[in-house]
Amino acid sequence: MKSTRIAFRVWLLVSLCVGVLFAGGKIPSFNDGELAQGKYATMHMLLEKTVMKIDVLTVDVRLGKKAHGDVTKLADGKSYSEGLGNQIADIAIKADDAAVQLTFKRSVPLNTWIGAVRENLQQARAAGLISAALEQKVSNGLPEWFAVLKDRGFKDGDRVVYRVYPDKLVTAVVSNDGLPLVRRTDSGKEGRSVVMASYFAPGSDFRVPLLQSLFN
Fold it and tell me: Mean pLDDT throughout 82-104?
């Protein structure tokens, strides 16, 4: 009984602390009811480690209603092609209402993940989708923004959720047991452009698998 009471007090303390830390806003949801539903609304892919074919993470994208309507007009009744994919990617990159969710399938050190994000930023900048100054700003900020994960890293089942709005980007990290670890809001259009460009830039590991998944 004593150990049960202690465990309850620890849980209560953690819950209260989380409530204080995240009182400024809720954790964004990939299944936000304001986003589009149904055919052509979502994209999904599994990222594997190239040589060993080890599952690393899944990526899910949900479009807002306007982008969903534009994609549906283009894609309905058609099969995937490179040209059609390029048109849809352009819509996704410019979307001002969307959600992107990463779900880790194994443990990944923070520095490894930051390195991968920086590669995506380089591809987006090389494609002219973001400026060199914005690339540098985000690259420099990553270790600070995710500092709470420095020693822990990401665990199997952890999620990173990006919620894109017209005037802001909300980023959250949620542990595999549902505990919010990070919540960050970036005002303006820069944040959203970085996220969508990172996943849909030409040459990105994510672009083609995500686009093809619309037609599966």
Answer: 97
The closest of 211, 210, 212, 214 to 59, measured between CA atoms, is 210
Domains of the chain: 2-213 (3.50.70.10)
- Tell me the average pLDDT across 161-170: 95
- The DSSP symbol for 185 reads E
Q: Residue 5: is its pLDDT beyond 60?
A: no
Q: Which pTM value belongs to this model?
A: 0.85
Amino acid identity, residue 22?
F
* Distance between CA atoms of residues 117 and 141, nearest Å: 12
Residue 16 has pLDDT above 70, yes or no: no
CA dihedral 147, 148, 151, 155 (to 10 degrees): -120
SS3 155: coil
Q: Which of 101, 129, 109 is nearest to 198 (CA)?
A: 129
Structure tokens at 169: 């980007």
Tally Cβ neighbours within 10 Å of residue 105.
16
Whole-number Å distance between alpha carbons of 202 and 4: 54
